[in-house]
Structures are given as C-alpha cells and as structure tokens.
Amino acid sequence: MKTVDMRPLLSAEWGTDSHAFVTTQFGASIAFNTNGVKKIQFQLTGVVDQLSFVVQINDEPWRKVLVNEQQITFQIPVNTARVRVVLRDSQASSLIFWQNPVKLTTMCIDDGKVTPVIHHEPFVTFVGDSITAGESMAEDGNHPELSYPQLVSDWLGKPLNRIAYGGTGLTANAPFQEPTAIEALWQVAENVERPRVVTDLVIVNYGTNDFNYGATAESFAFGLRIYLLELIKRFHSAKIILMLPFNGAFQSVYQNEVKRFNNFNIMLTNDWQISKDRIHPLSSEHKQIAEHILRGL
Q: How far is residue 294's CA from residue 248's CA, in Å, rounded to a whole number?
C-alpha cells in the first residue's frame, strides 16, 4: 500500500492539529478521482464510539461504511472513478464528539493514482443546527450527503462549506451549548481552528431549537443581534441570507433585527409546506427545501 497526500482532497470542514486532520462535522467529505486503484484505506486515531461514513463511486448509490479497528476500507470496482467519502454519523453524544473529534491520519491505496477534484471558488456556506447538518432525515438516521446544503451546492456547482451542529441555537435555551453558534464559526473542534475559505454566499438557519425549548422573543433578539455581528466579522464580503425557521418562529424578531444592518437578506419559509409534525425534515423535504432556496436565490 502507498500513502496519498490527503490535503487537497479534504472539504472545508476539516481542520488540522499536530498529528491529524480533524472534524466534528457531519457531512465533512473527502473527494477525489482514481485511476487504476482497487483498494482504499483510511487510518483514524482515537475513535471513542461507533462512526459511520457513506461512500459514492461515480453516480452509484451511496453506501454505508463503518469504522472498523480505526480504519475505513473499501474497494473500487472500476478502473477510473470519482469518489466521495462523507462522515455520516457518530454514536457519541454531542459534547463527547466535540471534545473527541474524528482524526484522520493517513490514506493508502494499493496501486494506481489519486488526483483531487478541482473546486472552483467561491464556496457556498450553510450555517445552522441539526437540520442543516442533515440529521435524522430517515428511519436510519443522518444523511448529510442528501441534505439541502449538499443538494444546493451540487446544483450550483459550488464547493460546500457546512457549519452545523445539532441542538444548537442563539440563546441559552438551546439544549446543546457546545459548540456555541459563535464558537462553531471559528472552530471545527475544541481548540482546533476552522479553515477560512472564500465564500460569496452564506445561508443561515437558526431559531428552531431556541423556540422549541422556550426562548422568549426578547432573548432571541439579543442572541440574534450578537450573532449577526459575528457573521459580519466572519463573512464580511459575502451575501448573507437568513432563512427563517420552518416552524415559523421569530419572524418579527428577524425582520426587526436586520434593520440594524445592511448585510442581510431574509428568506421566508412559511409557505414551503415543510411538515411541522417533525423537528427534522425528511429526505424528500430536504429536496423541496433545496428547490425553494434555488428559486429564492
């Protein structure tokens, strides 16, 4: 087996520490082209709970691959292929996962050649909670590879930058506070810097968890005001769209707060007919959301 330089193959959701490539983001991906490669192996370190990835080879259906003995191994059945490997799920709790991220150390192939997929900047960036992360989209759990950020990115032909963590929000009412929404903008894991990418479009969706766990309009307005300033700091040259929660929460708060700034556009979602019986939209609804976003752009 021979080692491959992974750096040009990794999506924007991977940071680095002194020993490995690091992520806590469902949807973090590795994309590359192969020629003459039959077997691929990724070595991880420090896996503390069950992890799963999904793999797509050319346009074949995605298939699930579990981490086994700190490794991901799969076969390439054709001589030339475009391959995408996406982090799908972790059995660890949100806090444990944030503090003990996925650490990828090496990539090996049996033979042949691996080349990067050429990405043409600028990126499209999606920011939010578990809905944006693609969690609980079907009976078998997470599907970030089929979520609306990935669909919009693919349809626009832009590389994707995803910043999304389940249970998070803009107030202390949100059930999970690690990472905070602001912390996630700047880090990919505890004390691991998030890479900067050139992005000209940022689509944000927050408020569902705050509303569901009892945040008042006043507390959400305060949290939103602080967060909008942080978005400007991080993405000062991008068009930033605030996509309202699908449950209709905090519409008047959003409309009032954006009047303070010149950097934001609001995308209404109340006529999108996304089911309010579930917190997490289904795969079919993610496709509808992607179509609505593309029309709204």
A: 20
Cβ–Cβ under 8 Å, residues 203 and 293? yes
**Distance from C-alpha of 53 to C-alpha of 64, rounded to nearest angstrom:** 6
> Along the 297 residues of the chain, how does pLDDT read in single tens digits?
999 999 999 999 999 998 899 999 999 999 999 999 999 999 999 887 889 999 999 999 999 999 999 999 999 999 999 999 999 999 887 778 898 999 999 999 999 999 999 888 899 999 999 999 999 999 999 999 999 999 999 999 999 999 999 999 999 999 999 999 999 999 999 999 999 999 999 999 999 999 999 999 999 999 999 999 999 999 999 999 999 999 889 999 999 999 999 999 999 998 898 887 788 999 999 999 999 999 999
Task: Give the β-pairing of 71-75 and 21-23.
Answer: unpaired
Rounded distance between C-alpha atoms, residue 62 and residue 56, angstroms:
5
Amino acid at 147: S
